[in-house]
Amino acid sequence: MDSALNRKHGFPIFSTTFEANNISKKDDQLASFYITEEDESAIRQLATDPAIGEKLIDSIAPSIYGHRDIKTALALSLFGGVPKEHQHHRIRGDINVLVLGDPGTAKSQFLKYVEKTSHRAVYTTGQGASAVGLTAAVRHDTLTREWTLEGGALVLADNGVCLIDEFDKMNDKDRTSIHEAMEQQSISISKAGIVTSLQARCSVIAAANPVRGRYDPSISFAQNVDLTEPILSRFDVLCVVQDEVNEVLDSQLATFVVQSHMCSHPDSEGLEEEDSSALGGGVDKKQNLIDQTLLRKYIYYAKTKCHPKLANIERSHEKIASLYSDLRQASCIGGGMPMTVRHVESLLRMSEAHARMHLRTDVQDEDVNTAIKVLLNSFISAQKMSIRKSLEKSFKKYVMSKKDHNSLLDHLLSTVYAKHVNHQRHRSDLGIGSGSNTIRIPRVEFESSARDMELLDFSKYYESYAFTSKFLLEKDTIVSKN
Q1: For residues 358-374, average pLDDT
Q2: What are phi and psi of 374, to 5 degrees?
């Protein structure tokens, strides 16, 4: 009998109990993450690909066009660094990411994708979340008449990811309550006689909108968002997304959306390759993408089985120290993203995450260079437009590598191509020219612009897919494909 209900109602009430010999789950949410021997063999084979890092980033949210900086940050956050215990002091390994940008730039879609990809994820919104809902609540049990403790979103996401949309809509008091959870990864409770600490070992990925609705590059990052420096310094990566008008990129985006809708239709299995390729060259090559089921297992396997060590980065020690010193000076002048010693730890966490992407046992200089590039892009994008160019020039020595040449050359050629498109359209409006859609760019013009940026090697770029998918090389002329 239930004595509490007996006293309440004045007549005997029996408690309901279940006795079972066997219990089986009706729906196992982690079934898609169980790794068989065949899966492990496929994962190991995939890790031997020299371009596995690029493939993993391309496979993050494949239905969203562009935003490679956000996809890189999300990939690093999903893999995460290695947590460390040092003399009763714990250093987190999870990577926190803040995405700030204009409306309609797929911020919420990125969060929803991470929710479906991670093995444990809790999604909430700043408008409907309170400090108690994010951390923990003390509730009075009506049956036992005792105080019980219930974990919030950050506690439920332990060893996973907590996703917070509309982060700017939260109250300041509610945001202050998650300071401890984001850095120490614990939540201290002292309510109703209950004094304890709950674990909140999770990554925090948040999305926010600017104060004025759209991001204003003429003012600093701190003026664009209503967030305090203590909360901003707890984010390892800040991604600024601007909805800029660009004729070439807008055309490629529209082409990507059209093809995505065509391929997503239930009756699109018989769609011919030539029909989809006729839409244009702005669509990513699908054979470079990893199957999403295998991708989820790859991430889960890397997080549970791979723990890279910071042992072979002797040559990067001085580089990290010099970079941190230069960033501190630049942050005082620019007034953008606050730079603290936490970002040195962020650099090491991202290096470990990049090593995990390759299933390495040790962190290499290549991993550190990638982390430096992500951190610098985050820092420079949070600065005013007036000083971005000078910062890019002064920090170029830290990010230049052989692998960056092709991406820089591709961006430069896209800029030259856009200029020629505008020029040809102006000539057509005046009735001058043949009316052909083919764009012919003098090779000298492109290469001279590249040499101004100290880019001297073009042979590998002309052989890359980034070039051959959109252009042809005819002696001294670069011809666009239609």
Answers
A1: 87
A2: -65, -45
